[in-house]
Amino acid sequence: MAYDSADIAAFKNVWVFCEQRQGVMMPTTFELISEGRKLADELGVNLCGILLGENVEGIAKELGGYGADQVIVCDSPLLKNYTTDGYTKVICDMVEEYKPEIMLFGASNIGRDLAPRCAARLHTGLCADCTHLDVDLGGYIDFLKTGSSLDVENTKFESKLFDVNTNMKMTRPAFGGHLMATIVCPRFRPAMATVRPGVMKKRPFDEAKANAVELVYPEFKLEASDIETEVVDIVKAAKKMVDLIGADFIVSVGRGIAKDVDGGIKLAEELADLLGGVVGASRAVVDAGWIGADHQVGQTGKTVHPKVYVALGISGAIQHKAGMQDSECIIAINKADNAPIFEVADYGIVGDLFKVVPLLIDSIKEAKA
Ligand code: FAD
After folding, report:
1. Tell me, what's the pLDDT at 150?
2. Count of C-beta atoms within a 10 Å radius of residue 1
């Protein structure tokens, strides 16, 4: 079913797709609920989580603690494991019934698969990989009036917008990260966005609100024949992925380790271990095959905001900074005093990382002794 401007006024409330895997809520869900709360407050509407799975009632209340007013729980053995067909059908049916105005998904593997499928089926717009969300309470229309050659007042479609002039503003990097584009979806609802994990800040958990959240169990139709794929087995990756997003201390390496790659990574590991942190990397290091892609920080890697981010031999390209510049404290070590990383660093050390890092390690060891 397609929605157009004539139907827009019927859409209300902010929804968040609550991703769980094997009964465990993904951390991104709490970030999205926290962000969704902010949007819902600005719009003066409810925030609702939509949770699919089998026997997931126990984890639904947790969502209230981060700001959800309501959680729609769709419980079925057919939803135990994620399948594109099954989840798309149930979500689209729920959207058609309840008509949310905004719908957020995490830009996880599942979110990146599910959100476009739902957007296409609902004939609405999706902005992928957002790094910032906001609400426009009418500025878009002002822009149309003043900044566009459209004859807004006399256009039937646009004049409809005057009745419903709120839009979600979805911001994401564009043109290879060289500019940030803010996108609205004025003609269709729900306006959908996927949001990069780690970008939005999680609110503090509120026990009282968790207990007060309303759980809704709607009727929905889902048959085994609706699902084309069958999950036969789930095999977890043998290698443990590095948890950059949850880390308080990150020591990242860049191409500056080129003259002794193994030695450079070892130094970073030693420093990270001493700080109780993990090793990150620039894309140059990942592309060179010196370290796994799960270590990459930046626009096409992970967005991190640790307490301390140490950049070793990283120039500070815009795409790298996009993933780390919100860290609480940035320490950069680079032999070029004009490296752009120093523009965002709280502490900068101009020097050869192979000389500076061993001195740092010794001083930390001494301080700890
Ligand atoms: P370089 O730019 O080569 O910098 C190496 C630095 O090391 C230099 O500043 C040099 O002065 C210093 N150095 C050299 N030797 C030493 C030494 N002995 N001691 C101290 N310093 C030394 N990049 C990312 O990191 N993450 C991303 O997610 C990402 N996404 C991208 C997406 C797109 C669409 C594009 C186009 C690019 C992306 N990039 C990304 C790549 C980015 O543009 C840069 O090419 C990359 O970040 C450079 O990595 P680097 O700083 O390690 O290497």
Report:
1. 47
2. 9
Across the chain, the runs of DSSP E, i.e. the strands, are: 14-18, 20-21, 24-25, 47-53, 70-75, 102-106, 126-130, 132-136, 167-174, 179-183, 191-195, 214-216, 249-253, 278-281, 308-312, 329-334, 347-350
Distance (Å, whole) CA 275 – CA 269:
10
Tell me, using a 6 A CB cutoff, whether residue 321 lines ligand 1: no
End-to-end alpha carbon distance in the chain:
67
Residue 315 annotated as lining a ligand binding site: yes
Q: Is 246 in the pocket of ligand 1 (CB under 6 A)?
A: no
- CA–CA separation, 322 vs 339, rounded Å? 16
Cα separations (Å) of 57 from 54, 78, 105, 264? 8, 15, 20, 48
What ipTM goes with this model?
0.99
Our answer on whether the CB atom of 261 is closer than 6 Å to any ligand 1 atom is no
Nearest CA to ligand 1 atom 48: 284
318 CA closest ligand 1 atom index: 43
Tokens of 273: 């271990």
| Ligand 1 pocket, residue 299 CB under 6 Å | yes
**pLDDT tens digits, 339-348:** 999 999 999 9
